[in-house]
Amino acid sequence: MADDEIVLYRALASRGIVALWMLEELGLKYRSEMVPMGAGASSPKLLKVNPAGRSPTLVDGDVVVSESPAICIYLADRYGYGILAPKITDPRRGPYLKWMVYATAVLEPARELQASTIVPPKNAWGVGWPDLAVIVRELVGALEGRDYLLGAAFTAADVMLGSVLSTSLYCGLVPDEPVLVAYVERLNKRPAFERAGRLNWSPELFPPTPNLASAG
After folding, report:
1. Regarding predicted confidence, which is higher, 205 or 215?
2. pTM above the 0.85 mark?
3. Buried b (16+ CB within 10 A) or exposed e, 81-104
């Protein structure tokens, strides 16, 4: 691989949609390295750059980044600073970082918990996130009357949280509150998302369904 080549290790129909969407929003040239998905599945090439064997993993020259929020933060800061990523002196930087990590630290575990048979530990401190109903109210409050998480400006936080929210709505894991549905519909109309979606859910393997256009 060329020293300056961006490579994304990803699995088909996976959380790789987040990194794909970011790369497409930034208009960067990159190469996809497809890897298997599933417990214990990996590839020798991926293991060389990420010993955990987890995808998505992004390689940008000498830099290796895994975990979707970290990939979003890295790409936005390096290639979209001041546009997709508020500058460090911008008062919006705090809320931006909150929503960036909220996607997988709060929304995702809460939705999975209510859809599973896992029982939270019964100790004094409990789990690290509130009930899903509280999370949904917070999201509705944050998005009501605005186009994006930070207001009128689309940022990488919308890529990260929007991706998780979109799949949550599509799979019926989050109530279809009108404010959240409208937000996801706006995001999914973005040309960069449409391109990323075709790569993640190849039309040859995943024929369109009435609701697929709004899946993330």
Report:
1. 205
2. yes
3. eeebbbeeeeebeebbeebbbbbb
